Amino acid sequence: MAKRWYIVHAYSNFEKKVAESIRDQAKQRDLEDHFEQIMVPTEKTKVLKGNKAKVTETMLYPGYVFVEMRLEPDGRIPQDIFFLIKETDGVGDFVGTAGRPTP
């Protein structure tokens, strides 16, 4: 089975919640094996405030969740996975053209 990365638009400041919600729903519906990784890319940065160094986590791509999933043999996203993601609270749509997700 082929696997591909897709990018999902998430509402601002809901990226981590969307990623967790997709994981939870996949687990509840016994669809976990369709997902390889679900991530919100971040980096840790040091910020100096006064005399203290504080480490903060900054999102590299605000508003986006990256999802690596297994595809149908013909290369399509399985319908139940497509709707699981699309119907998740906080999800806008997949990144793509002409209404179709682009890997």
Q: How does the SSE layout of this entry go?
A:
Blueprint: E1 3-10, H1 15-28, E2 35-39, E3 42-49, E4 52-59, E5 64-70, H2 79-86, E6 91-94, E7 96-97, E8 100-101
Antiparallel strand pairs: 1-5, 1-6, 2-5, 3-4, 7-8
Helix content: 10-25%
**Secondary-structure element order, as H and E?**
EHEEEEHEEE
Number of helical segments? 2
Strand content: 35-45%
Strands of the largest sheet, in order across it? 2-5-1-6
Characteristic key phrases:
4-stranded antiparallel beta sheet; two-stranded antiparallel ribbon; 103 residues; alpha+beta; 43% strand
Description of the molecule:
A hairpin with a 2-residue loop joins strand 3 and strand 4. The strands form 3 sheets. Strands 2-5-1-6 form a 4-stranded antiparallel beta sheet, covered by helices on one side. Strands 3-4 form a two-stranded antiparallel ribbon. A two-stranded antiparallel ribbon has the order 7-8. It is an alpha+beta fold and 103 residues long. It contains 2 helices and 8 strands, in the order βαββββαβββ. The model has no long low-confidence stretch (mean pLDDT 93). The protein is elongated. 21% of the residues lie in helices and 43% in strands.
Summarize the structure.
By secondary structure, the protein is of the alpha+beta class. The chain is built from two helices and eight strands; from the N terminus they run βαββββαβββ.
